[in-house]
Amino acid sequence: MIKKWIFFFYYYLGWFACIKMAQSGYELLTLLIPIPLFLWSFFFGESIKAIFFSLLLSLVGMTFDSLASYREWIHFENTNSSQLLPLWLMTLWLLFAGTLPALGRFFKGKYFWAAALAAIFGPLTYKSGENFKLINFSQTTSLGFLQISDVVILYSVFWAIYFPVSLLILNKGASCANSK
Questions:
Q1: What is the radius of gyration, based on Cα positions, of the chain?
Q2: The pLDDT value given to residue 161
Q3: What is the pLDDT of residues 100-143, one digit of tens each?
Q4: Own/partner pairs, 34-43, CB within 8 angstroms, 24+ separation
Q5: At what angle do helices 48-70 and 87-106 cross, to 10 degrees?
Q6: How far apart are CA 57 and CA 114, in angstroms?
Q7: How far apart, in Å, are the Cα atoms of 109 and each of 48, 103, 173?
Q8: Number of structural domains found in the chain
């Protein structure tokens, strides 16, 4: 149990480190942050197959964010890169990918909850990036007392689909590997 808490603590510490490094202009160094997480995963028994699928699933998220940037649904601030997706955000996707096998075990059979929580907390991580002045959403809509971005709703739908499907893929792969 303590391994899981250390694992998730490192994820959040890595998340914060990526954000602070991106703000300070050390974006390239963020790529080093996920390495210990994947080594930790491998050392504590994750299969190479699970780690590989996690990395592939991170490409889905990177592709979605690249599309959002290309369509100008999101804008990146304070970045030195000319590509569609800054390195710090790619690193965050790699960090998240490192947590997927453990999250897959935690949410196994609870895909509705995975979707509901992802629909809320997925977009909130991007909104927190706004507070750090690294990202902003376009197309704000007023819902009475609440100002919400149409893109936040789109991200909510993306996360509600992406997260449980990713977990299902990883869990199916793990059960296939265990049955051999």
A1: 17
A2: 97
A3: 888 888 888 999 999 999 999 999 998 888 888 888 877 665 55
A4: 34/91, 34/94, 34/95, 34/97, 34/98, 36/10, 37/7, 37/10, 37/11, 37/95, 37/98, 37/99, 38/98, 40/7, 40/10, 41/7, 41/98, 41/101, 41/102
A5: 130
A6: 16
A7: 23, 12, 14
A8: 1
Tokens, residue 176: 């296939």
- Yes or no: say if 75 and 126 are a contact pair by the CB < 8 Å rule: no
Q: Which residue matches tokens 């893109």?
A: 151
Are the beta carbons of 135 and 126 closer than 8 angstroms?
yes
Closest C-alpha among 17, 178, 42 to residue 102 = 42
DSSP 90-140: HHHHHHHHHHHHHHHHHTTT-HHHHHHHHHHHHHHHHHHHHHTTSEEE--E
Cα separation, 105 vs 3, whole angstroms = 14
Position 180 pLDDT exceeds 90: no
What range does the domain containing 38 cover? 2-179
Alpha helix ranges (H) inside the chain:
2-23, 34-43, 48-70, 87-106, 111-131, 150-179
